[in-house]
Amino acid sequence: RCFGTKCAGCAQGISPSDLVRRARSKVFHLNCFTCMMCNKQLSTGEELYIIDENNANVSDKETGSNENDDQNLGAKRRGPRTTIKAKQLETLKAAFAATPKPTRHIREQLAQETGLN
User: Are 49 and 42 in contact (CB under 8 A)?
Assistant: First the structure.
């Protein structure tokens, strides 16, 4: 493919049905989203460090880079992302399909059922 989105890891085209991971403006195939230092495949929500924005190098380990990189890039420090499992997603979709605006009581009950408190 000449046009369209290309994987930042392997430079191959990404089809609309491919599952991808994103890091800033880069898009990766799931298998290409790996740590450049240990080759470990990185998952959604895992903390990572962008080593070289131009070459799309990411790492799950902090290197000897400047501690102020996050502030220099204007990034906000946030907590870890929540990974929702398929069963939890099914439960949430079913509940919100039945009631698009659930009451606080129903939301608390959903949190208990799914373990997402």
Answer: no
